[in-house]
Amino acid sequence: MEEERELTFSDILRIFKRRKWTFLIIFLLTIFLTAFYLFFVATPTYEAKQVIEYKSSSSQPTVSLGSMSSAANLLGISQPSDSGLTTEIERMKADWVLANVVKELNLVEKANENKGLIARLRGTEVTERDLIDSLKEGINIQNVQDTNMIEISYQSSDPTVAASVVSLVYSYYTDYAENLYFEDSQSYLNQVETLFEDVSQQYDQINKEVLDFQTKNKISDISGGTSQESDPLISYYSETYMNILKLEADKNQLEIRKQAIEDNIFKLSPETKEFILTNTEKDTPVKDIKSKLVSDRIELETLKLNSPSSPRIGALEAEITVLEDELKKNLEAIFSNDLNFLASIDMETFNEYTGIITQLQLFDVTKQVYENMLQVIDDEIAKRSPIMYEYFLLRKDQAILQTRYNTLLTALEQERMKASLYDNKFKVITSAYIPENPVSPNTTLTLAIGGVLAIFLGILGVFVKEANDKTVKDLYEFESLFGVPDIILDDSNDAEKIVNYVYKKDFKKFGLLFLGDFSVAQNLSQRIYNILNTVKPNKTEYFTSKENEDYKEKFEKFEKFKNTNEAFIMFDNFNNGDYILYRDDLEKIIIFIEEKTTNLEDIKEIFKKEKDPTVVYVKK
């Protein structure tokens, strides 16, 4: 008799057959609750969208001081730069933009009017900051893949609010971006105007000094075209001087890019370098060696497990040692030179980096040439008369100031033109509209999830109920746990089988122990008694165990039972005292197991006490 057994597929089918109503009720209840939530509880959510296109360059002029890096470096000012798409997306979620949306839609008042019960009890007040943060999280702004399109979307239980938020976010963003642009432009103009005024005064002064010098020294009257010959030198000098400034600006940009590459690649730890080196898509000796090492180690460990005496183990260990040394040497060779490492993992960046270094070296050479040429011109002029040299220095300063003057004047005109021709960076492709259908809850998906959940809960409910049911479920379970019963009754009225069994065995005194419903025990015992009296009138006595019976009556009944030739007694509980009193005087104890009523633990207990009982299984 086994107490535990493996659950087979047949057992599962029988469980579901027994608990079909449990499964069906849970399934239907879950479906009903899902539908009730879907149609009566869940708040529909609507999503409004607006699609806009980013124009990489606006219609205003773009040529300005920023394009003249040498002049910009010379003048020490920076032109407003054109922000990128990522920056513009973040600006759309700026506090100023969202605060205006909140105010225009009266979201603070509406939120406080529609507060939940808990918020009202707590006295919580919704603030403008709360709604700005909520909008910042709720508004979704993303770039449509592989395009310059931007999609702005927002979800709300009110379709009108959803469309209004999307539309107003873009509207206030355009105002915000325009304000920022003109603030930056005005700041830039103020800087340029201040410098222009200063340079203009210096330029006027140098022009006056040149004219005075020419008048005083009668330069224009010198024969031989001395003044004309000095003009090309002055022009060359000023041009060379401006080229040096341009070189410095370009060199600074290259230095920044060079530093970025070095910071990203060269300053990594050796462990990180090794990881990048061996995991890059580009094939390298290190990657091949490491791959071979992995395969050899796997083979070695496999052989140690399956064939510990294999001669291949020694050869593999030697090969692994060689590979480890080779890997170490390769890593040292690559890491000893940052350029080797860069070339191993990213040839494109390597080419860029080496190109930058080359350009920087060439810049240094060119700068030295320019500086030497300036010195040559200086020396050339210095060989001439002191008056001409002094005149050359004045003309040189005049040429430099003239370049500054023209550059600033051009910058002023271009920036003013840009401001007058300001254009938004985005173009509306699809305007926001009030959505007609909610995006959530998704009826089909929710019902599908509810159906899956209903099946799961139904199965869970079946097994929980089965686990909590400690009674005998069916004949198959009883037989699998305790063996085949001696007698099987199709119902509780089938007393003839018991009588036939008693008659055939010729039991004079026997007991009926019912592990089940007391009413069934009384009915079946009475029917057995009636049949026995029909066969042998007035020969068989029927005794019934009674709870709380007077001891005198109890023992008198027991003595009568002992002195009666043929009798049987009915017990409804194997733990009561009468069962202990009568059991030794009984030829046979007949135990009745009632399907779906008798507890399994009671059956185990009685089988421990009774060595050879007659088991009767009563079906329901």
TrEMBL record:
Main location: membrane
Membrane topology of the entry: Multi-pass membrane protein
Sequence ranges assigned to domain Polysaccharide chain length determinant N-terminal in this UniProt record: 6-105
Annotated Gene Ontology cellular component terms: plasma membrane
Sequence ranges assigned to domain Tyrosine-protein kinase G-rich in this UniProt record: 394-467
This protein's UniProt keywords: Cell membrane, Membrane, Transmembrane, Transmembrane helix
Source organism superkingdom: Bacteria
GO MF: protein tyrosine kinase activity
InterPro entries: Bact_polysacc_biosynth/exp, GNVR, LPS_length_determ_N
TM stretches of this protein: 21-40, 445-464
Pfam families: GNVR (PF13807), Wzz (PF02706)
Location in or out of the cell: Cell membrane
Protein name, per record: Lipopolysaccharide biosynthesis protein
Species the sequence originates in: Petrotoga mexicana DSM 14811
Phylogenetic placement of the source organism: Bacteria, Thermotogati, Thermotogota, Thermotogae, Petrotogales
